[in-house]
């Protein structure tokens, strides 16, 4: 918390002079991005969510249960609809598996498919499991700062293999929560935007309970991930996240 | 009279005539053979590409080939299929559902394209059945069997008899997943297909995808693949008039494989260049022969002119000599070229010791040279040989007709 206050104060100072904006140390922006990227994680977390996906051909809602341990381990399982009940995803470090109860098989997602859609939504496997760490793989520049918000541009580090060509975070200044994140490809074309809203206080954290993914090339389509409930520091340890547990349903 | 004279003149110096003749015959015959082998390579390439995967003509819903959108499908109803069956030039019809997803076996997962087919029909259009290197071709009785490419099989570490999981997003948004047994492995030589293609039962795939009774393509095999563009146009008109207008697109392999069409177009140009180079040499030879023969006969031409032969007739005489010579050499060249091409068609040259298959413009050239007969490969050398020799004899003929009788006779 002290660190955050420090960041905050530094950012306040820098915002007063436009020319000084680019002189904000990269580490402080990195910490801010890290905070945003790990807002749903905590030491451990347990959540109940609904995910509504609308495409031009169909519309569906899934109810899912999530568990996570720091940001290294992650498990989710579909509760509804009945046809897909028990379908699960497990992430350990940067590896991802899906479990398919109908055929009783676990399949490992190859790293080349991490950019693929997760469960038919506009969320990629990569988003879901955060297998890439934005705060570690990108370099940051403060584009804009005022009373209400910060705008931070993230460009890939030259030595890291990243999914995106550029990211722009818009962060709500009073709460330090994300308002939106814009994702650009290598040609700097907007691919999608994620909007966050419905701020809610849980323990000491303020987090957005709703996340809406809007693909740029399909204005009529979107995915809304809505946290029904989330609790932090539930005491779940890393051993919970195993292939054996993935198959339980 | 003039023809007789021309013949007589040619045989007067038979050695020179025969030398010229043989040069013309051999150059034209070799050219015919070379073009035959070229065409053979392209026919090979075309067959490898179209008959391994696409078929010669593909019918799909308008727009499907641009985006491969899962939802751009249509129902291949009995009316459409019966209409196709009635066309005499269509030799095979296969309906296909094309789906992209993940194939997984134990620890290995790979992206793949699944082609939902009726196996007995597919075997009439493509040659994958002949390309099996392990296992067997599925029959239509077991719905959960399929065949996969050799590279894909190696990467998935799977052998015939083992099960694969296929996962994808079905048309209703749900997670489509099912198991099928690999009963055969094919190796087509086409690296892309071998690394990504699997063929499965159409009904099985339709059910998995929640896409009952629809397909993305109807692939056709026709009797003359090189005429596919014309047949596709005819078929398009027929479908437009018999079915609802503008729903289905008929595409020939040239549209589906533009790089292949470009390769063939560039072949046509290189064929012209080859002809040009070879014949400019042959043309100079003919020019030389006729100049020599006209110079030699200056004295007698002078006398002919002196006794009252019109200069135009003299010019015609020389041109006629060259025409006779070229007609004879063209006929011999056609015969010889035909025999050589036929030999290369029947026997060919096996290069598999020296090289492997070459993938070029999306097609595969087998390491076996084989010629094919093609009308253009005979017409082009024949007609250009005639043109070149007539052109080459024009100048000597003009010279003969422009001789001044008094000068040449006195000049002796």
Word description of this protein:
The complex is a heterodimer of chains A (249) and B (412). By secondary structure, chain A is of the alpha+beta class. Chain A contains 5 helices and 13 strands. Chain A has helices at residues 2-16, 26-37, 125-129, 134-137, 243-247; strands spanning 44-54, 59-69, 73-80, 88-92, 95-100, 105-108, 138-145, 149-156, 166-172, 177-184, 190-202, 205-215, 222-232. In chain A, strands 6-5-4-3-2-1-13-12-11-10-9-8-7 form a 13-stranded antiparallel beta sheet. The longest helix of chain A is centred in the N-terminal third of the chain and has 15 residues, at 2-16. The radius of gyration of chain A is 18 Å and the shape is globular. Residues 1-6 and 8-21 of chain A have low confidence and may be disordered. With 412 residues, chain B is an alpha+beta fold. Chain B has a 6-stranded mixed beta barrel, surrounded by 4 helices. A two-stranded antiparallel ribbon of chain B has the order 11-14. In chain B, helix 1 (2-12) packs across helix 13 (311-346) and helix 2 (14-54) packs antiparallel against helix 11. Chain B is elongated, with a radius of gyration of 31 Å. Classes of the chains: A alpha+beta (249), B alpha+beta (412). The A-B interface holds A 53, 55, 57-60, 83-84, 87, 98, 100, 102-103, 105, 107-110, 112-113, 117, 119-120 and B 71, 102, 104, 107-111, 165, 167, 169, 171-175, 177-179.
The string of secondary-structure elements of chain B, in order, is HHEHHEEHEEHEEHEHEHEHHHHEEEEHH
Radius of gyration of chain B over all CA atoms, rounded = 31 Å
Q: Biggest interface, which chains?
A: A-B, 23 and 19 residues
Radius of gyration of chain A: 18 Å
Shape of chain B: elongated
* Oligomerization state: heterodimer
Shape of chain A: globular
- Main beta sheet of chain B, described? 6 strands, mixed, barrel
DSSP strand tally of chain B: 14
Structural class, judged by helices and strands of chain A? alpha+beta
Q: What amount of the residues of chain B lies in strands? A: 15-25%
Strand content of chain A: 35-45%
User: How are strands sequenced across the largest beta sheet of chain B?
Assistant: 2-3-8-5-7-6
Helix content of chain A: 10-25%
Please tell me the overall pLDDT of chain B.
85
What distance separates the N and C termini of chain A? 39 Å
**Class derived from helix and strand content of chain B:** alpha+beta
Q: Can you count the helices of chain A?
A: 5
For the terminal residues of chain B, how far apart are their CA atoms?
A: 28 Å
């Amino acid at each position: 918390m002290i660190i955050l206050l420090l960041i905050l104060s530094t950012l306040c100072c820098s915002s007063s002079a436009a020319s000084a904006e680019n002189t904000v140390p990269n580490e402080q922006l990195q910490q801010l991005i890290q905070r945003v990227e790990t807002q749903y994680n905590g030491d451990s977390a347990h959540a109940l969510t609904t995910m509504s996906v609308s495409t031009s051909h169909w519309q569906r809602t899934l109810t899912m249960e999530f568990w996570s341990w720091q940001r290294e381990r992650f498990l989710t399982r579909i509760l509804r609809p009945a046809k897909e009940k028990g379908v699960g995803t497990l992430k350990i470090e940067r590896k991802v598996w899906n479990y398919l109860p109908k055929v009783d098989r676990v399949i490992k997602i190859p790293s080349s498919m991490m950019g693929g859609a997760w469960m038919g939504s506009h969320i990629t496997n990569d988003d879901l499991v955060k297998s890439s760490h934005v705060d570690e793989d990108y370099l940051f520049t403060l584009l804009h700062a005022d009373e209400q918000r910060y705008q931070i541009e993230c460009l890939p580090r030259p030595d890291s293999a990243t999914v995106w060509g550029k990211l722009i975070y818009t962060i709500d200044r009073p709460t330090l929560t994300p308002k939106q994140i814009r994702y650009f490809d290598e040609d700097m074309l907007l691919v999608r935007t994620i909007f966050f809203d419905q701020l809610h206080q849980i323990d000491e954290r303020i987090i957005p309970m709703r996340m809406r993914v809007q693909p740029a090339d399909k204005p009529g389509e979107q995915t809304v991930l809505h946290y029904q409930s989330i609790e932090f520091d539930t005491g779940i340890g890393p051993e919970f996240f195993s292939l054996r547990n993935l198959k339980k349903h | 009279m003039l023809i007789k004279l021309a013949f007589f003149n040619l045989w007067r110096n038979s050695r020179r005539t025969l030398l010229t003749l043989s040069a013309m015959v051999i150059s034209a015959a070799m050219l015919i053979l070379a073009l035959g082998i070229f065409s053979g390579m392209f026919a090979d390439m075309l067959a490898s590409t179209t008959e391994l995967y696409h078929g010669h003509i593909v019918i799909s819903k308008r727009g499907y080939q641009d985006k491969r959108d899962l939802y751009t499908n249509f129902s291949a109803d009995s009316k459409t299929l019966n209409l196709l069956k009635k066309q005499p030039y269509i030799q095979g019809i296969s309906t296909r559902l094309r789906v992209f997803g993940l194939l997984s076996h134990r620890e290995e997962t790979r992206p793949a394209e699944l082609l939902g087919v009726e196996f007995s029909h597919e075997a009439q259009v493509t040659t994958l059945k002949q390309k099996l290197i392990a296992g067997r071709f599925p029959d239509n009785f077991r719905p959960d069997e399929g065949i996969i490419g050799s590279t894909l099989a190696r990467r998935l570490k799977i052998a015939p008899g083992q099960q694969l999981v296929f996962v994808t997003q079905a048309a209703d948004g749900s997670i489509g997943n099912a198991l099928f047994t690999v009963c055969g492995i094919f190796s087509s030589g086409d690296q892309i297909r071998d690394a990504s293609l699997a063929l499965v039962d159409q009904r099985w795939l339709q059910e998995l995808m929640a896409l009952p009774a629809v397909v993305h393509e109807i692939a056709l095999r026709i009797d003359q693949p090189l005429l596919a563009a014309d047949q596709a146009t005819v078929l398009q008109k027929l479908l437009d008039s018999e079915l609802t207008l503008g729903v289905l697109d008929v595409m020939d392999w040239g549209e589906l494989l533009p790089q292949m069409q470009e390769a063939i177009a560039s072949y046509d140009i290189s064929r012209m260049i080859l002809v040009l180079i070879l014949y400019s040499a042959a043309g100079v030879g003919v020019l030389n022969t006729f100049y020599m023969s006209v110079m030699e006969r200056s004295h007698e031409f002078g006398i002919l002119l002196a006794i009252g032969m019109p200069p135009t007739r003299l010019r015609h005489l020389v041109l006629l000599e060259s025409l006779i010579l070229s007609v004879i050499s063209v006929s011999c060249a056609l015969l010889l070229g035909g025999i050589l091409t036929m030999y290369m068609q029947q026997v060919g040259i096996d290069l598999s010791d020296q090289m492997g298959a070459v993938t070029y413009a999306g097609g595969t050239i087998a390491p076996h040279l084989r010629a094919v007969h093609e009308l253009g490969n005979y017409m082009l050398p024949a007609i250009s040989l005639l043109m070149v020799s007539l052109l080459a004899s024009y100048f000597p003929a003009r010279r003969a007709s422009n001789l001044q009788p008094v000068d040449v006779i006195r000049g002796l």
